[in-house]
Every structure is written in C-alpha cells, then in structure tokens.
Amino acid sequence: MMKPEIQSAMNAQINEELYSAYLYVAMVNYFEEINLKGAAKWMRIQVQEELAHAHKFFEYMVSRNGKLSLKAINGPKSDWKSPLAAWEAAYKHECHITECINKLYGKASDARDPATMQFLDWFVNEQVEEEANTSDIVAQMKMVKDAPGGLFLLDRELAARTAAAGADPAASAAT
Ligand code: FEO
After folding, report:
1. CA of 56 to the centre of ligand 1 (A)
2. 71 Cα to the center of ligand 1, angstroms
3. Percent helix, strand, coil in the chain (nearest 5)?
4. How far apart, in whole angstroms, are the C-alpha atoms of residue 18 and residue 9?
5. What residue ranges do the domains of the chain occupy?
6. Which residues' Cβ are closer than 6 Å to ligand 1?
7. Measuring CA to CA, how many Å separate 129 from each of 53, 75, 126, 136, 142?
8. What span, in angstroms and rounded, lies between the C-alpha atoms of 86 and 165?
9. What is the CA(81)–ligand 1 centre distance, in A?
C-alpha cells in the first residue's frame, strides 16, 4: 500500500504529465499554423510520449492499490513569438518536469518506498533524454536563426522523428 504522501505526489505527477501532453498539443497547432510540418510531427509524437508517461503512473498507482485523485488540467499557452521561443519553452518545461521527478524521488526515499524509487528510475533516465532532445533543437534553431533555408532543412530533419517503442499509451496498457 502506498503512503498517502506518495499517493498525493503521484497524483500530482499524473497531472503534470497530462499538462505536458496538453502543452505539446498547443505546440502542434502553433507549428501547423506557421507551416513547420516537421516540428508539428515531432510534437505529435511528443504528445503520445507524454500520454504514455501519464499512463505508466496511472498503471503503477493501480498496481499498488493507490487512490487516484484526478485534478483539472490547466490550459497551456497557445502562441509563441517565434519557433525558437516555442522550443525554448519546451526545453524549460522539460527542466521543470525533471525537477518534479527529482522531488518525487526524494519523497519516495524519505518514505522508505523502494518500489516507487525503482519505478521512478525509468523517469529519471527519460528526463535526461527529454532535456537533451529539446536543448539540442534549441541550439540548432539558434544556429539557423531566421535563415529560411536552414529552417527548412531543420524542419525536414524534425519530420524524421519516429515514435519510440512504448510511446503509445494504448499499447503500453498491455505491459
Ligand atoms: Fe513526461 Fe516530457 O516528460
């Protein structure tokens, strides 16, 4: 049985992951509006990943007989002043999620809940990747600046992203 403070922190993290999906849906729409189809595709995959993250938390809660307490998801910003500003916002958001996971890990450690710590290991590693992915794109966007040719090529590269195994929340239900 999970301790109440861990239950409550896990519920808050489900909200964070669903908000992440919501934020990236807004970014899909923004990139579509400015015809950056590759960036929009990249973000569509990111939405699936965030839903899969929420799903992993949800299934873990169920497996530990945790009590779900779902809260309203805040509305994200829906417009950015430039593609670079949107990617910077994505990177900043991932840094925030890393902080959330680290705090959650600390709570599980304080509560002497090794099962939850072990469960969170996957997210600790995932956040290293999430920060690296978005920070690399921010760096590339800065190199390109407003040069249309560079932006076109970078967008084509972003279009090559494929969904990682396990990123489909429906598929991960079976695991
Ligand atoms: Fe669920 Fe992008 O962290």
Report:
1. 12
2. 18
3. 75, 0, 25
4. 14
5. 4-72+81-163
6. 17, 20, 50, 53, 94, 97, 130
7. 14, 25, 5, 10, 20
8. 26
9. 23
Q: What is the pLDDT of residue 148?
A: 85
Looking from the CA of residue 130, the nearest atom of ligand 1 is 2
Q: What is the mean pLDDT of each run of 10 residues along the chain (175 residues)?
A: 94 98 98 97 98 97 94 96 97 98 98 98 98 97 89 95 73 45
The CATH homologous superfamily for domain 4-72+81-163 is Ferritin, core subunit, four-helix bundle (1.20.1260.10)
Residue 8, number of CB atoms within 10 A of its CB: 15
In total, the chain counts a number of residues equal to 175
